[in-house]
Design brief:
mainly alpha
Length: 79
């Protein structure tokens, strides 16, 4: 009786994930800048624009850090 061994190269998946992360960090900064500019146009003031532009990324980072230390996955957060 012969055995069937499944073999998958995960190299392509890992390289794709790393490349996607690099794009999100470096190449994806123009949508953030566009959102801040549109926000400034709607609010018509610099101070509230700066407060919102700083508070949204900080709240996302704070949530990710809390999820890491409490060992809660993003999948559990979306339920």
């Amino acid at each position: 009786m012969s055995k069937v061994i499944a073999f998958v190269k995960f190299c392509a998946f890992i390289l794709g994930a790393v490349g996607g992360f690099g794009y999100a960090v470096y190449g994806g900064s123009w949508p953030i800048a566009a959102a801040i500019i549109i926000l400034a146009l709607f609010l018509k003031d610099v101070k509230p624009t700066i407060v919102v532009a700083i508070s949204i990324p900080l709240s996302v980072m704070f949530a990710i850090v809390l999820m890491y230390f409490t060992k809660i996955s993003l999948n559990m957060m979306t339920l």
